[in-house]
Design a protein that fits this description.
By secondary structure, the protein is of the alpha+beta class. The chain has three domains: 130 residues, no CATH class; 71 residues, Helix Hairpins (Orthogonal Bundle), CATH 1.10.287; 131 residues, Heat Shock Protein 90. Helix content is 59%, strand content 14%. The strands form three sheets. A five-stranded mixed beta sheet has the order 5-7-8-10-9. A three-stranded antiparallel beta sheet has the order 1-2-3, sandwiched between helices. A two-stranded antiparallel sheet has the order 4-6. The chain is rod-shaped and about 150 Å long. It comes from Streptomyces tendae. It is a multi-pass membrane protein.
């Protein structure tokens, strides 16, 4: 499903926001944890040193007051760094991690005697370890809450963006009625993008409708004087100049008829009259009527439920286009419900393959001259009978390839 694929796309903006928030939260938790750990450790060391020195002084005072043995020590019992502090300053403190247990030493030299006492720091260490565990635990709990909350919070904007993207793709594919339907309320950037896409679609539809209306009006206006021109050309005396005039008049007449046909296709007023036909025989008859050389190869005896007049129009246009813009030999293959027309010319230009046939554009000079209406009409008629016309170039030795895929026994949509 498109939604599932969008959610699984790790490069989407949705996941990038989640990753950014996760990294920010993890960085903040790590920073706070390190700061709390270091500040707690520094305070613990400071308080431990004070407590060890205080206990040493109390032990000395108790010994003088009660006559008990004072906390005397020999240099061999003390760590070297503590001894250096005592020799230099007369007193000192030192923390040891153990084993067997963490402790804080306090020592001083007084009246030629060396006094030292070791204070147990196990309770302090356990307190700091418990604090570290709580920091890690609650940091993970916070991430476990923040990440799903971020995913839920970003899903709605991501879904709206995907809706805008789907609408844009539908418009690109030719569906000029596609709209995002978000309106102009909300005032955020996504609403602005959606409104712009809808406005663009409205403007594009108006321009295309205006162009279609202009094409239809021009064709209708030209038809009446053209009929008079055809009649007048038929009355001219025979001769080379007359034949040239008649040829140009025929070209003009075919152009006007093509324009009228395109205007009917644009207006959507065409209706099919399907019946079952032998596909290979119909293609051979269509090729024969063009008067152009082409080989027809059929696999089996395929039959199709389609409008024979419109199918004839499609095949005729494809064959004429192959000769006019390509090069021989022109090969036609009928396989199942697929009709393939191939020439050995320079092939379709990249612009035509990317954007489809466009009226009054042949795409490239090497494809010859023309009005670009043949393929436009062929694709329009294919849509009416429910077929699909694919255009490509032969991957091995070049040449244009047009494949017409007829529907499999289904009633054409234009019926």
């Amino acid at each position: 499903m498109p939604i599932v694929r969008a959610l699984l796309n790790l490069r989407s903006l949705h996941w990038k926001i989640i990753l950014l928030v996760s990294v920010a939260c993890a960085t903040m938790a790590l920073t706070v944890g390190v700061l709390v750990h270091e500040s707690t450790l520094a305070r613990s060391m400071h308080e431990g040193a004070l407590r060890a020195a205080d206990q040493l002084h109390r032990a000395e005072q108790d010994a003088r007051r009660t006559g008990q043995a004072p906390p005397l020590a020999t240099p061999g019992e003390l760590p070297e760094s503590l001894l250096r502090q005592v020799e230099r300053h007369g007193s000192g403190t030192l923390y040891e991690d153990g084993p067997p247990a963490p402790a804080y030493w306090a020592a001083e030299r007084k009246d030629g005697q060396l006094y030292a006492l070791k204070t147990d720091m196990t309770a302090d260490l356990l307190t700091r370890q418990a604090l570290d565990r709580h920091l890690w635990k609650y940091s993970l709990v916070t991430l476990a809450v923040v990440i799903p909350a971020t995913a839920l919070a970003t899903e709605l904007p991501a879904r709206r963006l995907r809706r805008v993207a789907r609408t844009a793709r539908r418009i690109t594919a030719g569906d000029l009625e596609a709209r995002t339907g978000m309106g102009r309320r909300g005032g955020d950037e996504i609403t602005g993008i959606a409104a712009t896409v809808d406005s663009m679609a409205d403007s594009l539809r108006e321009r295309i409708v205006s162009e279609q209306r202009f094409t239809a009006d021009v064709a209708h206006e030209l038809r009446t004087p053209l009929m008079g021109l055809v009649t007048s050309a038929g009355l001219l005396p025979e001769g080379e100049a007359t034949e040239l005039v008649r040829d140009r008049v025929r070209v003009l007449r075919d152009l006007v008829e093509d324009l009228l046909e395109i205007s009917r296709l644009d207006a959507g007023v065409e209706h099919v009259q399907p019946r079952r036909v032998a596909l290979a025989d119909l293609v051979e008859e269509s090729v024969a009527r063009t008067g152009l050389p082409a080989t027809v190869t059929a696999t089996g005896a395929p039959a199709a439920e389609t409008d024979p007049r419109r199918l004839d129009r499609i095949v005729t246009n494809l064959v004429v286009n192959a000769h006019r813009h390509g090069a021989g030999p022109v090969e036609i293959t009928v396989s199942g419900l697929t009709v393939t027309v191939r020439d050995h010319g320079p092939g379709f230009p990249a612009d035509l393959l990317a954007h489809g046939p466009q009226r009054f554009r042949t795409g490239a000079e090497q494809r010859g001259r023309g009005h670009g209406l043949g393929l436009t009409i062929a694709r329009g008629q294919a849509k009416v009978i429910g077929a699909r016309l694919d255009l490509r170039n032969h991957p091995v030795d070049g040449g244009a390839v047009a494949e017409l895929h007829l529907p499999d026994g289904a009633t054409p949509p234009g019926r």
